[in-house]
Amino acid sequence: MNYLIGIDIGTSATKTVLFDENGTVIASASREYPLYQPENGWAEQRPQDWREAAIDTIGRVIRQAGISGNEVRGVGLSGQMHGLVMLDEAGEVIRPSIIWCDQRTGAETEEMLRRLPREKWMEITANPPLTGWTAAKILWVKNHEPEHYARCRHILLPKDYIRYVLTGQFATEVSDASGMQLLDVPGRSWSREVLNALEIDENLLGRVYESCEVTGKILPEIAAATGLSTDTVVVGGAGDNAAAAVGTGVIRDGMAFTTIGTSGVVFAHSSRMRLDPAGRVHTCCCAVPGAWHVMGVTQAAGLSLQWFRNQFCQDYLEEAARGGLDVYQRINEDAASVPAGSDRLIYLPYLMGERTPHLDPDCRGVFFGLSAIHTRAHMLRAVMEGVSYSLCDCNEILKEMGISVSHMMACGGGARSPLWRQMLSDLYGCPVETLKQSEGPALGAAILAGVGSGLYESVESACGRILAEDSRIEPVQEEMEVYKRYHKLYQKLYTSLKENYKELAEL
Asked: Which residues are recorded as binding substrate (predicted)?
């Protein structure tokens, strides 16, 4: 039997999954690590934590399965996008990684606009300068930590640091590189014009591959530590959402998915380049060679519910721990006991600023309409609805761009909630489907590894062979009408508070 491994370097944990060639999960392991917030709006992680988690979980899945490393044809990598990993001449980490949700780089995005006009950024990178993306973070280190930048010899993204650990190769691939704002997205290669404008040496960046191309093989010391073979190939892989698209079969025009993980994403496949002139959604290369995707991002989707759980649901956590239960099952039951609209309570999910549609690092979370009748259950439902309103904003922009979605898939931790999927279906006005396969990014990364290793002919043929529908939720007309009204008010609230957010940021 042939096997494949998908590794997903997430914000809360690294998850490694071993699949057989039919896409069946054989073994799975994950390892959590902390997120550090040295200041308000900052977010960092230690790349060393990702390294330890990857090596540990690879070894665990191979041991769990009781297979030989020679049977693993390939490894695919998926991971959180936009993070900045800086290595010195010896390949050692210089400073903690500034990750995707960090919002410290407002001044640097202004600097980027002084160096190149907005129109040029859109033409080359398909997106305006963004606070959470990698280029601005590189400039921040140059401006604020010049001693660290002077030592830097390699700049990598989170999953590409794990590639270096596994193979010794400094490389990336087009989907993840698109989120650095250093890539010529139409041309799928580094942009000399952008690099020159930002005074970044191209030699700091790895070679760019397509997602299913082989980038290297497992190092002997990693083989010894994990049980893999030195003949096992490692392919380009993909950013977390591009990998999830492959893992959910979103590989053709007319197909899209919504994921609710730490962040939330509405992601649509496109066989040609499409741009939002306002820059509210992001256009990137996708993991299917020669194609692109358009995605809108909610910064704090699952993070909002996780935050509320951790701060205000301690009794639920204790009950779940005692009974060996999933705390989110209890949360969903409470939220489902409240009617659509949460009895006039609206939540704005801006815990980490916001990307789509506002591109505002200063906005923050709000409960609007809170009254004495509201209970914790109301607040839980309002959090889920607020995230859904934000994701609906993303979907409406896709419609404006002429992207017609006939198949909306759901994935990520939030997609396990039938209640949350119903909210999305009601707001989108279309069915929301799930697959029998639930591993999303890890499965997508493994499929890419299968193509690169020659196990599958193409991404499309692999998805056709492996993926199968599991559930389908249809919109409920009465709830659609309720959510239309609440969504309109939700959209007005940001406009009303925009200047207040700026004042708050300056206090």
From this structure: 81-82
Strands (E), 345-403: 346-348, 366-368
| Residues 335-361: tens digit of each pLDDT | 999 999 999 999 999 999 998 999 898
Listed as ranges, residues in the chain with pLDDT below 70 are none
Is residue 240 among the annotated active site residues? yes
Strand partners, 294: 268, 283
> Which helix (H) or strand (E) covers residue 384, if one does?
helix 376-400
Which residues fall within 8 angstroms of residue 499, CB to CB, at 6 or more apart?
A: none
CA distance 427 to 396: 10
Q: Long-range contact list for 113-117, CB < 8 A, 24+ apart?
A: 115/197, 115/198, 116/193, 116/194, 116/197
**CATH 3.30.420.40 occupies which residues in the chain?**
3-248+440-467, 302-411+492-502
- Catalytic residue, from 184, 240, 276, 426: name it: 240
pTM confidence score: 0.86
Residues 6+ apart with CB under 8 A from 481: none
Is residue 81 a known part of a binding site?
Answer: yes
Fold annotation for 302-411+492-502: Nucleotidyltransferase; domain 5 (3.30.420)
The closest alpha carbon to 204, from 149, 143, 131, belongs to 149
CA atoms of 85 and 96, how far apart (whole Å): 7
Is 293 flagged in the annotation as binding? no
Q: How would CATH label the architecture of 3-248+440-467?
A: 2-Layer Sandwich (3.30)
pLDDT of residue 429: 93
